[in-house]
Amino acid sequence: MTLKFKPFRRLVLAICAGVAIVSIANQASAQTSWPSKPVRIVVPFAPGGTTDILARAVAPELSKAFGQTFIVDNRAGAGGNLGADMVAKSPADGYTLLMGTVGTHGINKSLYSRLPYDPQKDFAPVTLVAGVPNVMVMNADKAKALGINNVPDFIRYAKAHPGQFNMASSGNGTSIHLAGELFKSMTGTYMTHIPYSGSGPAMMGMVSGNVDVMFDNLPSAMPQIKGGKLKAFAVTSAQRSAAMPELPTIEEAARLKGFEASSWFGLLAPAGTPADVVSRLQQETAKALGSPAIKEKLLAQGAIPSGNTPQEFARFIDAEIAKWAQVVKASGAKVD
Fold first, then answer.
1. C-alpha angle with apex 46: 107 to 85, nearest 5 degrees?
2. Would you say 145 and 231 are in contact if contact means Cβ atoms under 8 Å apart?
3. N or C: which end of the chain has fewer CB within 10 A?
4. pTM above 0.90?
């Protein structure tokens, strides 16, 4: 006698189909309901620097767009690696983001022999927030006392007095650090590197006279330049900055062909974050950066807003890692 199981088979298939539909519906519901609680934007440096400034400019706009609080959480240490690693190892649920930098996602892969995270594999790029030039600045009182008015003056004095100057940075591996190392290697000068936990603390050291020179991000340095506490010599970008067009580039000022060491900042999420969440974050961030109020504010500080797509940002990061590998090699800088 032949037994027929077709009705039972149809029942099993129907149950499986139902489970699949419920699963898909639950995933869609989870994505569309995001965010249902506050979102944290980790800044891997101390308050007061450009990374912090940009995160605090974007966070309120995202809070308004999504109806949930976006909290800025400063986690400084190890040239940005501490905060970046924390985000890399956070749940990929859209509730922990990183304001990454050229240091955490461009320079450090070549600079550190043991990086605790992979800047390409461990993150889902959201969008490039802004690019900024760095600016070579010196404590204004010290510059006046030594008769240093421009980059050539500085180079002459530094060569005549090797090791006299201390060079501040926001941490090992940051573009602020690497800009200084590149300057040293291309000019044949020597300065002692003093790394701080962020641009804000480094700037306090500059203003107080504890350190002498810095290649800071323009947005965080500009208030002290305008206030007369710092003497600005030149920008480190390939072109002059629209925010301070009177400043030459270092290439112009010192005839250092090919000198360029600018910074950038962008939002990233842990790898595996739902594509829908990443897309919504990118769209709202780009909308905020394109608004007249935010755009004008950032441009006035020397930052150039972006808001590109996740795919464009990912390709940009790949290119930056390749570019900075050459800069690290040329400068001879290494952090173990």
1. 50
2. no
3. N
4. no
